[in-house]
Amino acid sequence: MSCGPQMPAMPLSMVKAGETVRVSRVKGNEDMKHHLKDLGFVEGSEIHVVSSSGANIIVTVLGARFGIDSKVAMHIMTVG
User: Fold this and answer.
1) Of 36, 25, 29, which Cα lies nearest the Cα of 59?
2) Could you tell me which CATH number the domain at 10-79 has?
3) What is the distance between the alpha carbons of residues 68 and 72, in angstroms, rounded to a whole number?
4) Residue 41: which of 61, 55, 18 has the closest Cα?
5) Sign of dihedral through CA atoms 32, 34, 37, 39?
6) pLDDT computed for residue 1 by the predictor
7) Strand 76-79, strand 20-26: pairing
8) For residue 20, which phi and psi values (nearest 5 degrees)?
């Protein structure tokens, strides 16, 4: 049983620049899940959003910086 209310998961595409979140799950087909897993987007991974500008999001995960299309970022569910 958890202690207190839990934040609902939201897509990475909705996280603001400067925020750090954790991956709660990855949605999509198997190819999408596998690709994102290879990049380090796995449950529990910490993601820092460097910048977010409409169609593209720049994030840091596992010490590497990636540019992600917002459509792909919608498959990465996060919690604060």
Assistant:
1) 36
2) 2.30.30.90
3) 7
4) 61
5) negative
6) 42
7) antiparallel
8) -120, 130
pLDDT at 5: 56
Question: 6-60, pLDDT tens digit by residue?
Answer: 678 999 999 999 999 999 999 999 999 999 999 999 999 999 999 998 789 999 9
d(CA 17, CA 38): 23
Please report where in the chains the tokens 């994030």 appear, as a residue. 59
At position 48, the amino acid (one-letter code) is H
Which residues, other chains included, contact 12 with Cβ-Cβ below 8 Å and sequence gap of 6+? Answer: 21, 47, 49, 57, 59, 68, 73, 74, 76, 77, 78
Of 58, 57, 60, 61, the closest CA to residue 71 belongs to 57
Which one-letter amino acid corresponds to residue 33?
Answer: K
